[in-house]
Amino acid sequence: xxxxxxxxxxxxxxxxxxxxxxxxxxxxxxxxxxxxxxxxxxxxxxxxxxxxxxxxxxxxxxxxxxxxxxxxxxxxxxxxxxxxxxxxxxxxxxxxxxxxxxxxxxxxxxxxxxxxxxxxxxxxxxxxxxxxxxxxxxxxxxxxxxxxxxxxxxxxxxxxxxxxxxxxxxxxxxxxxxxxxxxxxxxxxxxxxxxxxxxxxxxxxxxxxxxxxxxxxxxxxxxxxxxxxxxxxxxxxxxxxxxxxxxxxxxxxxxxxxxxxxxxxxxxxxxxxxxxxxxxxxxxxxxxxxxxxxxxxxxxxxxxxxxxxxxxxxxxxxxxxxxxxxxxxxxxxxxxxxxxxxxxxxxxxxxxxxxxxxxxxxxxxxxxxxxxxxxxxxxxxxxxxxxxxxxxxxxxxxxxxxxxxxxxxxxxxxxxxxxxxxxxxxxxxxxxxxxxxxxxxxxxx
Length: 445
Hints:
Layout: H1 8-31, H2 40-50, H3 67-79, H4 82-106, H5 113-125, H6 127-132, H7 139-158, H8 162-176, H9 185-199, H10 204-222, H11 224-233, H12 246-251, H13 259-262, H14 267-271, H15 283-292, H16 311-319, H17 321-338, H18 349-379, H19 394-409, H20 413-443
Helix pairs in contact: 1-4, 1-5, 2-3, 3-4, 4-5, 4-7, 5-19, 5-20, 7-8, 7-9, 7-18, 8-10, 9-10, 9-18, 16-20, 17-18, 17-19, 18-19, 19-20
């Protein structure tokens, strides 16, 4: 969904942010240790040792679909270097940044250049997005695939064809071969195909053909792990009933009732930026904490947790209240706008596309979030409530910031300038954190 060329000043700013994001990702890739808390390297070592894929439960990480590991296996076999494999993650991160930049520069879903620039700044500079796009992990390809699915979905909404239905199915199938969070895209895209067909007054037979095509392509391409699980365990999706995980028991209980849902006291994070008893029982604080800073220790970037630099995470958490409230405002407004889909036959074509695009973008985010919450409550472990698990919908996250900012600043230029300055301060604090961490690594401290 494009609204044509942007003003030259906005284009230049977006391009500068793109290159700033590229530079930041390359620098982080040099300094960041390849591994995080999930031992993805074990999967590659298993392939090397056994010459086959592990089934669920054989190793810790074997519940993941295999595509990412098969793609990077030749790099591992040739070098046995985790750093060499990490280079592939950084390359995917750069590709995702470029794709999101193109989407934000062209989309008609953002009304103002100010919102467009701030959305791009979040994509380019958010430390946790940069870090988790740079680990040796299946997260980087999952994020790129998630962005691709959103772009393809909006293209289909604008010009529906059977070829684009098949393309959506292929993208989701590749996502299912990469990471389980792609499951959340299935109902969203099936609903999109139905809504587009309803608006176009397709006959029932055409509805059935397109939905069957989407389902067949996605299911055929992405079914491997579900079939494997069913063959070995009798169920398509594994749980702790089939593969017990002792580490989950150590995190229980996380959910303590209503207080775990309504505790939004960010002051706890300012006082204790690292995971603690004060924060690990609050679902909102876990998501907030892991979105804006490395609340859970997960990498070699841990020099700001104590000593002279611990003011940085505290500052980040204090300042980030503003963009978080703007995002929540954007989500609320998008949800209200989505209700206009009920007027499927009375909206003008341009308005229909904007409303449908908003619904798709919001649905992508809420679908990822809903899946993560379902897993988290099922297992009752604090490590499931991490924001990075919804980063496959990061373009949607950026859109919510733009929507909230445009709504708050609309017709109030002074407030718009104040909010923009505060957002810049958030990005400066986050970038300063990364610069300090990288400096320690480069100096060997």
